[in-house]
Amino acid sequence: MATLEIVNVRKSFGAVEVLKGVDIKAEDGEFLVLVGPSGCGKSTLLNSIAGLQSNDSGEIRIDGEDVSNLHPKDRDIAMVFQTYALYPNLSVWENIAFPLESRKVAKKERRKEAERVAELLHLTDYLDRKPRQLSGGQRQRVAMGRALVRDPQVFLFDEPLSNLDAKLRVVMRTEIKKMHRTLGTTMVYVTHDQIEAMTLATKIVVLKGGEVQQVGSPDEVYNTPANMFVAGFMGSPSMNFLEGTLRQAGQEARMDIVRPDGGVVALVLPVGEALAQEFDGRKVIIGVRPEAMVDEESETKDGTYQQIDWPLEILEPTGADTIAVLQSNLEGGEEEMVARFAARTSARPGAMVQLNIDISAVVLFDPDSEKAIYHAAAPEEAGKLVHLHPARNTAG
Amino acid sequence: MAITDNSIHVPTSQPRKLRKGTTWVGRNLPWLTLLPTGILGAIFIYGFIVLTIYISMSASKLVPDYTFVGFEQWAKLWGMRRWGIAVNNLFVFSGLFILFATTIGLVLAILLDQRIRHEGAIRTIILYPMALSFIVTGTAWKWILNPGLGIESLLHDWGFVEAQFDWLVRRDRAIYTVVLAAVWQSSGFIMAIFLASLRGIDPSIMQSAMMDGASSWRIYRRIIIPQLRPAFFTAVVILLHMAIKSYDLVIALTNGGPGTATDLPSTFMYDYAFDRSRIAIGAASATMMLFTIAAIIVPYLYSELRSHNRSRGHA
Amino acid sequence: MHDIVLGERSTTDRILRALVYAILIGFVLFYLAPLYVMVVTSVKSLEEILAGGLLNLPKKLDFYGWDEAWNNACVGTECRGMAPFMINSLIASTLATIIPTAIGALNGYALSLWRFKGSELFFGMLLFGAFIPFQIVLLPMASFLGWIGWSSSLTGLTFTYIVYGLPFTTLYFRNFFVSFPIDLVNAAKIDGIGYFRFFWRVALPSSVPIMIVSVIWQFTNTWNDFLFASTMTKLESATVMVALNNFVEVANGVKRYNVDMAAAIIAGLPTLVVYLVAGRYFLRGLMAGAVKG
Q1: Cβ neighbour number for residue A118 with a 10 Å cutoff
Q2: What CATH number is given for A233-395 in this structure?
Q3: What is the ipTM for the molecules in this complex?
Q4: Are residues C100 and C214 in the same domain?
Q5: Are residues C178 and C104 in the same domain?
Q6: DSSP label at A64?
Q7: Is the pLDDT of residue C219 over 70?
Q8: In this complex, which chains have at least 3 CB pairs below 8 Å with chain A?
Q9: Residues C30 and C55 in one domain
C-alpha cells in the first residue's frame, strides 16, 4: 500500500515533447485512471511510473520515496499489459508464478501460490494449459493473476480491456473494480475509454498533448469540467456547445444565441454579478449535456428549465428514449448537437422544436482560452475558475 | 464473480521488499553479451579486410613484405591479360546467369502459382540443387558435358551423328557450361523468391481485374509483374552477389580452363595468392572483389534495414 | 493461389493447362537429370560406361564404384576412400553448427530485445560480414592460423567456420526476436526476471524454428564449403569436398566415372538428406539471408 506522486515529469522523444511537466498525486488505495485520446502521453506516463523508460526530468515517488532511478523490478509494482504479455511457452501456472521464480521461491511454494491466485480468477481448470489454448478473457485473467501473485505496492494497467469484445469488457471491468475494493491497493489505470474511466476511477486524470487537463473525481470531471476539451471528451454522447453573447442583468446574465437560421433565442443564467460584469458584451460558449437538453414529453428531473426553439434535423429512436440531432451554431457550422428526447416524442424532423434546457447543469467557457468560467453545478467555484486557470496556463 | 471479498490475503512466502541494487554488469549485459562477437568481427572481418587491402599496397611477393608501394600492385593487376580475361568472364557469366536464372525462376513461379497438383513435390525437386555443394554438382556436370561420353554421345545415339557438344573443352564456349550449371543450381531459389512474392499479392486485386474483363496476359503484365519489383530487386542482388563469389563451381567444372578461358576473379585470386605466391597481386584482386560486392550490398542492406525499421514504426 | 491463367471452363483452358503441366514436367526432368545420371553411372561397370548410353539404366548393377569410393579411393597419396574425410567434415561441421548457433542466439536476443545505443549499427556492421567475398580475409586468416599453430588443421578450419558463421546465425536470431512482442520483455523487467533467465526460460524455448534454420544453414554451408577447406587443410585434415575435388581432378590413367559419381553422391548425401527432411527450414534460411525482416 502506498501513495504515488508524480512531480513535474517531462519526457521527449527526439523533438517531440510527450510529457510537458506532469503533476499528479494519488493517495494510498486510490484508483487513478489516466484517460485521454491516443497520443496524449498516458501510456508514456505509465511507462515512466513503471520505469520502462527514464524521464528527462521530474520525480516519481512511491510511498514518498523517489524511485526515478530504480530499475522496474525494484519499484515494487506490477503491470497488466494491453497485449497481456503472457510468456507463450510457459503454462498458465508458470506464467502466474514466474515473478516468484526470480525471488527464489521454491517450486512447490510457487505452485501453491499460483493455485491460490488461479482460484480467485477462476483459472483452476486451466493451470497446465498454454496461453494459446486460452480465450481472450482467460488470457486477461492470467495476466491479472501474474500481477496479483506479486502483491505489489502499486498495480499498473495499460488499457487491459481494449482487446476484449464489448460484453467481456463490461464483465472484466466489474472484476477489476471488485479486485480494487478487496485489495485496497493503489492502482493506476490507463484507458482511452471515458466510460471505463468513469466507472472505475476514484480519481480521473484527463490528459491531452502531454499536459494534465484536469484531476478530479468522476463526478467533478463530468459535472465541472475545467475546459472544453474535458467537457467534450468525458461523457457519451459528448457535451453540446453553443455560442452566444452575454449581457449583464444585475446578479444574472442574459445569453443571446443566434440560431443557424438567423433567429435569436436567449437563456438567463444566474452567474453572479462579478462574472456577469466581466463578460458583459463578450462572446461565451455554453456547454449542455444531452440529458440536460430535453423535449416537452420527457420526464424532467429536478432542475431549472428554460425553453428555446431550435430546428430539429434527425431523430434516432433507441427504445428507451430518442436521440435528437440538431445543428449547433459554432463557427464552421459542422458541429452537431445531440439532445435526449422522450421515446414517444411529438417532435418532427425538419420542423422547429422546443428544447428544454436545464440551466442548473450548464457550463460556460471562455471561447479564447476554452477554460470553464462558470459551473452551474458548483456556482461558488465560478469566481475561482476565472482567475485560477489563466495563471495555470502560463505555468504549464 | 471471480473475485470474492476477503479471499485475497497477503502471501507471506515472499519478501516484502527487494532492493537489490542493480550492478554495473547487470545494467550492461546486452552489449557485454555482444562483446565477444564484436571483438571477433573487429579482428577477423574488418581487421583482416584492412590487412588485405594493405597487403595489396605492399611489395609482397612470395613472402609478405610490408614496404608500402601505393597503387603499384593495383596498376599491375589491371595491366595483366589474365585479369582482363577474368573480369570479362565475370561480366559474361553474371549477365547470362542473372538473365536466365531470373527468367526461369519467374516462369516457374508463375506456372506453380496456378493451383498445380503436387506443387510441393515439384518445388522440392526444383530447389534441391541449392542444398548440394558446387563441388558435387560440378563433378556431375563435368561428366554429363564431357565430349566423349556425355551429351554429345547421347545425341549421336539418338541419331544426330553430326552433333557436336564439346563446349566444356572449347576456349570460346566453356564459360557457357559454367552458366548452365550455375543456372541449374540457383534458379530454384529465384523461383522461391518470386513465388513467395506472388503469394503475397492480394487475390482480390486480380479477381476484380478479371471481372473488369482483362485477359490473363494483361493482368500479369500490367498488375502482377509490376508488383514483383522488390522480388526482382532482391533476386538480382542475390544472383550478382553469388556470381562474384562463384568459385567452387568453376574449380570443379573447368578448373578455370581450358587454359585460363573460364577464369573468374575468384579463381584468379586463389591462384595468385596461394599457388603462384604473388601475394600482393592476389590481395589486390580480392580487394577488387570486395569493392564490387560492397558497391552492391551496402546500399541494398541500407535500404532493407531502413524499410524494415520504418515498417516496425513506433510501438 | 492465383489460378487466373487457367480456369476449367473451355477447351482452350484445358489445352493451356496441359501446356503448363508439360512445361513443368520438362523442368522437373531438367532438374532431376544430373542426379539421375549420377546414380545410374555410379552403379554401372566401367565397360558399360565407356560403351556410351548416358541415360540408360545399367544392364547389370555393379557396386564396384561405391566400394572403391568408400574404401579405396586415393586422395593424394592416401588410398583409404572417402570415409576418413567424411569424419573430418562431420567433426568440423558439427562444431561449426553448434557453437555459432548458440552465440548467435544470444547475440540476436541482445540486439532485438535489449537494444542499446549503437546496437543497430553493430548489427549492420556484422551483417556486412555475411556478404563479404571470403577471398578478402583468406590471406590474413591463413597467416593467423599459422601464427597460433593451427595451420592446415581441422581446428583452424573449424575456428574459421565459427567466426564467419556468426554474422549469419546472429542475423537469423535477431530477425526472429525482432517480431517478439516487446511487452514480454517489459513484463519481465517489472517482474524482476533477469536477462539470462528470460533468455533461457522464455526466448530460447520459443526460438526452436529459427534454431533449426540456423543449424541447417550452418551445417549445409560448412559441409559444402570448398574455399576455406582447400586453403586451411592438408591431406589428413581435408574435408570431404576437398577430397572429392582432389580425387576427381588428379586420377591418373583411365577415368573411373562410376567411382567419381559414387564419391560425389557420398559427399552430397548428408546435405541432400537434411534438405529432404527439413526443406522448409532450409528455404527459410536461404530467404532470411536474402530478404531481411
Answers
A1: 23
A2: 2.40.50.140
A3: 0.90
A4: yes
A5: yes
A6: T
A7: yes
A8: B, C
A9: yes
Helix locations, A227-381, DSSP H: 228-233, 273-278
CA C115 to CA A311: how far, in whole Å? 60
| Every domain of chain A and the residues it spans | 4-229, 233-395
Q: Are residues C96 and C19 in the same domain?
A: no
Bond prior to B258 in cis (omega within 30° of 0): yes
Categorize the per-residue pLDDT at B247 as very low, low, confident or very high, splitting at 50, 70 and 90.
Answer: very high
Assess whether pLDDT exceeds 80 at residue A188: yes
Pick the CATH number of A4-229 from 3.30.200.20, 3.40.50.300, 3.10.20.30, 1.10.40.30: 3.40.50.300
For residue A313, what is its C-alpha cell? 434535423
Chains contacting B with at least 3 CB pairs below 8 Å?
A, C
Domain range holding C211? 83-290
Q: Which position has the grid cell 586420377?
A: C251
Do B3 and A182 make contact, defined as CB atoms within 8 angstroms? Answer: yes
φ/ψ of A74, rounded to 5, equals -90, 5
Provide the number of structural domains found in chain C: 2
Q: Note whether C28 contacts B126, CB cutoff 8 Å.
A: yes
Q: How far is A47 from chain C (nearest CA, A)?
A: 9
Predicted confidence (pLDDT) per residue in A296-338, tens digit: 888 777 778 999 999 999 999 998 899 999 988 887 666 889 9
Q: CA C49 to CA A112: how far, in whole Å?
A: 75
- What is the mean pLDDT of the segment spanning A243-252? 90
Report the pLDDT value the prediction gives residue A33, as an integer from 0 to 100: 96
Enter the C-alpha cell of residue A372: 470553464
A67-96: burial string, b at 16+ Cβ within 10 Å, e else: bbebbbbbbbbbbbbbbbbbbebbbbbbbb
Q: What is the pLDDT of residue B92?
A: 95
CATH number of B88-276: 1.10.3720.10
Mean pLDDT of the residues in chain A: 89
Whether the CB-CB separation of A187 and A160 falls below 8 Å is answered with no
B24 min Cα distance to partner chain A (Å) = 12
Give the model's confidence band at B168: pLDDT under 50 very low, under 70 low, under 90 confident, else very high.
Answer: confident
